[in-house]
From TrEMBL:
Gene Ontology terms describing biological process: polysaccharide biosynthetic process
A molecular function GO annotation: acyltransferase activity, transferring groups other than amino-acyl groups
A GO cellular component annotation in the UniProt record: membrane
Keyword Membrane: yes
Organism: Klebsiella oxytoca
Pfam families given in the database record: Acyl_transf_3 (PF01757)
Domain Acyltransferase: 3-318
Record's keyword annotation contains Membrane: yes
Lineage: superkingdom: Bacteria
Name of this chain's protein: Acyltransferase
Residue ranges crossing the lipid bilayer per the database entry: 36-57, 69-90, 118-141, 148-166, 172-191, 203-220, 232-254, 266-287, 299-321
Length: 344
């Protein structure tokens, strides 16, 4: 779906924006932080839940399902993490700017460690991503109609269990954030039902309402009800859910205007979103060091440069590294054996 690719690009840019403004703040260039940019991660989780339902209907083998997910996520993550490790061993401050504890082992295992960070600070999201894949892989043998319901029930049970666990690792893994994958699954059922029943005009109208609800939800973040719950799912995932559904219902428009420059650009950034997500912190560090030496102190120039350099770096990584290793691994793992001639 083109709308999904555009949303991936949108989510990646949200994350880059919030980290760029945080970097500007730490450099003393301003206090404004694009807080809503944190929701890019929540949007990624919702997209994952939706996508797993789309492709999960065609899968029924645990090992094949997991091998596809692992080859998609782990190789590039290990390459970028190893690059971060080399930099860390040479100059720890370039990777660990806040001087906190870092666990190299846990960085590669993608298992959170109490009081310690990953070499790639964004790696924590991949811990949840891989955990969700394992959960979904456990029910791929079920009928397509039951997979989503079973996955949601398991996720809810895990979150409830995590709330009452005294084990830190279990508590971290079974965070309420897992609900966001369930939201994505729910969005799949909603889209699957509504897309066949709404006309283009009706879909556009419903999408408009969803966008307005998302804007209003974000606008009322300071309402006492939000501060009362202090819940990431409530504050960030819900508005992203409405935006996600709005985009999906407008898939017909994205297909109609797929050759339009904005759609092509955002779709391409969506293709490169994983590389962009993993590499953008390196770009921010380079821009920050360079501008400090040049004496540039303009907030908007700094943030804009961070975003542009991050996108360029992400695209380069996508074209030079990600696409190639993905192609090689797919050809190696999924290549069908050649039939041997009997010679008779």
């Amino acid at each position: 779906m083109i709308s999904i690719q555009v949303l991936r690009g949108f989510a990646a840019l949200l994350v880059v924006l919030v980290h760029s403004t945080l970097k500007a703040q730490s450099a003393g260039l301003g206090e404004r932080v694009f807080e809503i940019g944190h929701s890019g991660v929540d949007l990624f989780f919702i997209i994952s839940g939706f996508i797993m339902m789309m492709i999960g209907a065609r899968e029924n083998n645990f090992f094949l399902f997991m091998s596809k997910r692992i080859t998609r996520v782990i190789p590039l993550y290990y390459i970028i993490t190893t690059a971060a490790l080399c930099i860390y061993l040479f100059n720890p401050s370039l990777i660990n700017g806040n001087n906190g504890a870092i666990s190299i082992l846990h960085s590669y295992l993608l298992i959170p460690a109490q009081g310690k960070s990953f070499l790639l600070s964004v790696g924590w999201t991949l811990s949840y991503e891989m955990f969700f894949y394992i959960v979904f892989a456990c029910i791929v043998f079920m009928k397509s109609s039951a997979k989503g319901i079973a996955a949601c029930l398991i996720l809810i049970a895990l979150v409830v269990a995590g709330r009452y666990s005294s084990n830190v690792t279990v508590h971290n893994f079974m965070s309420i954030i897992l609900f966001e994958f369930a939201i994505g699954i729910g969005c799949f059922y909603f889209y699957d039902y509504m897309s066949e029943r709404l006309s283009e005009v009706q879909s556009a109208a419903v999408s408009t309402v969803f966008i307005l609800i998302a804007i209003a939800w974000i606008g009322f973040q300071q309402d006492p009800i939000f501060t009362l719950f202090d819940n990431r799912v409530l504050e960030l995932a819900i508005p992203m859910m409405f935006i996600f559904m709005a985009f999906c219902l407008c898939e017909f428009n994205f297909k109609k205007y797929k050759k339009a420059v904005p759609v092509r650009i955002m779709s391409y950034i969506g293709d490169a979103s994983y590389s962009l997500y993993l590499t953008h912190l390196f770009a921010l560090g380079i821009v920050s060091k360079t501008y400090a030496k040049l004496g540039v102190e303009n907030y908007f120039v700094f943030v804009t440069t961070c975003v542009v350099v991050s996108v360029i770096g992400g695209i380069l990584c996508y074209e030079v590294v990600e696409k190639r290793i993905t192609a090689v691994l797919r050809n190696t793992i999924y290549r069908k054996p050649k039939k041997l001639n009997s010679g008779i």
